Amino acid sequence: MMRANGLYKTFNPGTPIENPALRGASLDIPQGQFVTVIGSNGAGKSTFLNAISGDLIVDQGTIEIAGRDVTRLNAWQRAGLVARVFQDPMAGTCEALSIEENLAIAWQRGEGRGLKGALNASLRSLFRDKLATLKLGLENRLSDRMGLLSGGQRQAVSLLMASLKPSQILLLDEHTAALDPKTAAFVLELTDQIVRENQLTAMMVTHSMRQALDHGDRTVMLHQGRVVLDVSGEERARMDVPDLLAMFERTRGEAIADDALLLG
Amino acid sequence: MSLIALLGATEIGLIFALVALGVLISFRILNFPDLTADGSFPLGGAVAATLIAGGHDPWLATLAGTSAGAVAGLITAWLNVRLNILQLLASILVMIALYSVNLRIMGAPNMPLIGADTVFSPFIARAPDSQYLIQPLVLAVIVVIAKLALDAFFASQSGLAMRATGANARMARAQGVATERMVLLGMAISNALIALAGALYVQTQGGADISMGIGTIVVGLAAVIIGETLIPGRTIMVATLAAVLGALVYRLFIALALNADFIGLQAQDLNLITALLVGFALVLPSLKRKFAAKRSAVTKGSTAHDAR
């Protein structure tokens, strides 16, 4: 369960390049729901996700995860509650470390790290089993460097790492944007499977309206730093991309009209 | 080159192997360009020499010198992670500050230890004729212990988290690694090792001198780079071994160059040789690649010819 309430974040305040990225964004995600987030460039999608992950601390508003106020906690302090997959396949894994070492780091997410050996036989066999579920043949390449893997393989391992330990919310940041269409489809399918099997609460930011409607249980649209559209259930099931596009156009028009009203 | 000169080169090589291990942690594992070494090496020496001259136990003095180095590393890391001072600049600040600190500690630009008890004294007392052999032996044991301890640490949960911090800090944070703490800890360990080298150095050289730290970082880096060229490898065990061997090879080459009378090099040419050696080690990998590419092109050409 995640509750973001009235988030504000302005970059470079008081300068000519001042950029109010979030302007009162609010979103409640109940336990077990998979929400997709769409929006045009500069709508505040990434900022919103980074605010929830703790990469950014918001100027105003509160963020609660599983009933805990995490507004002032930074990324590593929230890591026990938040799992995430980055857009850039390079960002979510360490290319200089081996596959098993990357998994071992994820295995300790949200827990203390001591002087105990990071890897042992039982962990390796667990990792091997988990990797086998990806059906990429990675279970035989535990000690290979992560840098040897393709972008799609790395995103698949990233997903595995994110689901290795329980989390209160899984954040997916356009995690298929850097992949070719076929690989993207594979990673998306894997995402659905992992979210379903682990009954995860998840939020996926995407550029693609198709993806936003095809995956998850609910779709919200961000525009100018606010949630302007929120569809789920029957209404969403009946929707197709043109419908969403029409709604998108309408909200944009209305949003501009709103601003014009406010300014006037 | 005489046997004594060879053992002398090995001795200094082993001391700088500790520096190389420290530099490996800061430059390679944490990705933190750290010049504190030029201050923490003489800091370890100054603290150890002062305590030994004051009649304290040499092992305790060595430990105190090592701890002082850890504190120096902590300060550099703190300036960077808390006050957001650029890594290089933070380390230069601490380095020049340590120059004054070291003068204060010793109370004079140098501190002789002639005749004082050192960590080597008990071993030398048993075999008074073989000091030249015993000092490198004791140092070798210390270096091996340091290497194995580092290997074990970097295979642990914390050590792995530290490696992730240097390789991809954003990923490390997302996995719940307190990256700032890791930088603090890693820099403390790095400079502790370098200060340990300084503390041992003054005990082999019969005293501390305020200028003994000049160029420490260059030598450490040279050792790491030469080691990586000699035995490339991605695992930590290989990297630490490479750093140790790099330091030994480096000192051996220096000794050879200085001892070869026909070249006509003298002690004052040391820094020039260092620069040449490091430069050579830096271009060697690309030369190797070029050579390999040429050779494979030649073999391919000949098979094509044979096919016809």
TrEMBL record, chain A:
InterPro entries, per database record:
AAA+_ATPase, ABC_transporter-like_ATP-bd, ABC_transporter-like_CS, ABC_transporter_ATP-bind, P-loop_NTPase
**Bilayer disposition of the protein:** Peripheral membrane protein
Entry GO MF terms: ATP binding; ATP hydrolysis activity
The record's keywords, sorted A to Z, are: ATP-binding, Cell membrane, Membrane, Nucleotide-binding, Transport
| Domain called ABC transporter: residue spans | 2-249
Q: Name one GO cellular component term.
A: plasma membrane
Q: Which Gene3D superfamilies match?
A: P-loop containing nucleotide triphosphate hydrolases
Please name the Pfam families in this protein's record.
Answer: ABC_tran
Q: Which domain of life is it from?
A: Bacteria
* UniProt keyword Signal, yes or no: no
Query: What is the predominant subcellular site recorded for this chain?
Result: membrane
Q: Where in the cell is it found?
A: Cell membrane
* Name of this protein: Putative ABC transport system ATP-binding protein
UniProtKB/TrEMBL annotation, chain B:
Quick one: a GO cellular component term? plasma membrane
Q: Which CDD domains match?
A: TM_PBP1_branched-chain-AA_like
Enumerate the GO terms in the molecular function aspect.
transmembrane transporter activity
Q: Which UniProt keywords apply?
A: Cell membrane, Membrane, Transmembrane, Transmembrane helix
Q: Where in the cell is it found?
A: Cell membrane
Where do the TM regions start and end? 12-30, 59-79, 86-105, 137-161, 182-204, 210-231, 238-258, 270-287
The way this protein sits in the membrane is described as:
Multi-pass membrane protein
Short name of one Pfam family for this protein? BPD_transp_2
Q: What name does UniProt use for this protein?
A: Putative ABC transport system permease protein
